[in-house]
Amino acid sequence: MHCARGQGVAVLERAPAIEEVGAGLQIAPNAGRILQGLGLGEALDAASLRPDAINIRRAGDGRLLSRLPLAGARERWGAPFRLFHRADLQQLLLEAARANGAISIRTDARVGDFEEEGAPSICACMARGARGF
After folding, report:
1. What is the Cα 18 distance to its own chain's centre?
2. Is 90 helix (H, G, I), strand (E, B) or coil?
3. 9-12 and 103-106 as β-strands: parallel, antiparallel, unpaired?
C-alpha cells in the first residue's frame, strides 16, 4: 500500500486492540478502484467473491423484483463488485498498513476533536487531553 503524495498517515483506533469482528461487506466498484489505487488489487481479488449479479427479492414470497447484472463491472466501472467477510478485508488492510513505514497505527486512541492546521495537516485532540499528529 502506498500513501498519496508521500504523506504520512496516522490510523487512530478507539478499541484497545484491532480485532476481527463483523460479518459480510459489499464493496462497490467505486470503492474498489480507490483500494486498487493503493496497490491492493491482487489482495482484494484473493480475499473476495465477485458475484455475477445482485437479485432483489420480495421478503414475503421470494419473488424476483429486480436483477442487476455485474459480470462486466470491471470493464464498465474499473473494478468488480466484491463481497468480503469483514475479518478478511480488515486483515488485508491491516497487513498492508503495517507493511508501510509511512503509516502509524495507534490503538486505544479516542479522538475528542480535531483542527485543520493547513493542508494537508490535521491535529487530533485526543479525548484524554493529549494532542498529536
Report:
1. 14
2. helix
3. parallel
Cell of 76: 464498465
Which contacts qualify for 87-91: CB closer than 8 Å, 24 or more apart? Answer: 87/20, 87/21, 87/22, 88/47, 88/48, 89/25, 89/27, 89/47, 89/48, 90/18, 90/20, 90/21, 90/22, 91/20
pLDDT 10s per residue in the chain (133 long)? Answer: 555 556 778 888 888 888 877 789 999 999 999 999 989 999 999 999 999 999 999 999 999 999 999 988 999 999 999 999 999 999 999 999 999 888 889 888 887 777 776 666 666 666 665 555 5
Bridge partners, residue 122, by sequence: 116
In the chain, the amino acid numbered 94 is L
* Full-model pTM: 0.75
Grid cell of 68 as nine digits:
442487476
Q: Tell me the residue type at 62.
A: G
